[in-house]
Amino acid sequence: MTISITQPPQVAWASGQFTNGPLIRKSTRLQNLTHVFMDEKAWLACDPQQIVYDVEMVDSAPIAGALYTGVTHLQPGKVGDEYFMTRGHFHAQREQGEVYYGLRGSGLLLLQDEKGTARLEPVFPGSVHIIPGFTAHRLINTGNDILSALAVWPCAAGHDYAALTQGFNLRVVEEVGRVQLKEYHHD
Ligand code: F6R
Ligand code: MN
């Protein structure tokens, strides 16, 4: 009998950096986030090349029942008074959930169900977020450092960005130096 020992991918918990494994990296820049931020004028005035977030994920074969693992590194910053955030999405297979784990930095996880009801969970090193099916999700960086969160989700889930063209109903802005929540409805 031959017993094989294979080195697994490794993540540094404090930084979210992977140090081993077949990895895929994707950067999302301000120019990729059309109509994501409320203040269109402020968005146009920003450097389009500026990276808002990077996702580094283990390149797993998307076979039935398999899971993906990835880390999102969300930069600190704002467009107008709205904090940097991920685009956010529903899963294409709506019933599929996901788990996010906060690694570094501080921010919020915005969750919105199909009726449009939104809620927030604080994200911090060690936070665990059970995202149920039928729930759109977005990370928001309200801190001064990079917000990194590890995610595990079913390969079968897929992503549906189009269903959120009206955006999320809740926005997170800085007003007089404080984090403020705003209800927002696209017209
Ligand atoms: C996967 C997942 C995360 C996000 C990542 C970037 O289902 O939720 O890995 O894909 O945080 O956000 P989006 O995909 O909304 O640009
Ligand atoms: Mn997801």
Automatic annotation (TrEMBL):
GO molecular function per UniProt? glucose-6-phosphate isomerase activity
Give a yes or no for keyword Isomerase in this entry.
Answer: yes
Q: InterPro entries annotated for this entry?
A: G6P_isomerase_prok (IPR010551), RmlC-like_jellyroll (IPR014710), RmlC_Cupin_sf (IPR011051)
Q: What class of enzyme is it?
A: isomerase
| Keywords attached to this entry | Gluconeogenesis, Glycolysis, Isomerase
Which EC number(s) are documented for this chain?
5.3.1.9
A Gene Ontology biological process in which this protein takes part is:
glycolytic process
- CDD domains reported in the protein's UniProt record: cupin_PGI
UniProt record similarity statement: Belongs to the archaeal-type GPI family.
**Which reactions fall under this protein's catalytic activity?**
alpha-D-glucose 6-phosphate = beta-D-fructose 6-phosphate
Task: Give the pathway listed in the UniProt entry for this protein.
Answer: Carbohydrate degradation; glycolysis; D-glyceraldehyde 3-phosphate and glycerone phosphate from D-glucose: step 2/4
Note the Gene3D superfamilies from the entry.
Jelly Rolls
One cellular component term from this protein's GO annotations in UniProt? cytoplasm
Q: Which Pfam families match?
A: GPI
Q: What is the recorded name of this protein? A: glucose-6-phosphate isomerase
Residues in Glucose-6-phosphate isomerase prokaryote domain copies:
31-184
Per the record's keyword annotation, is DNA damage included, yes or no? no
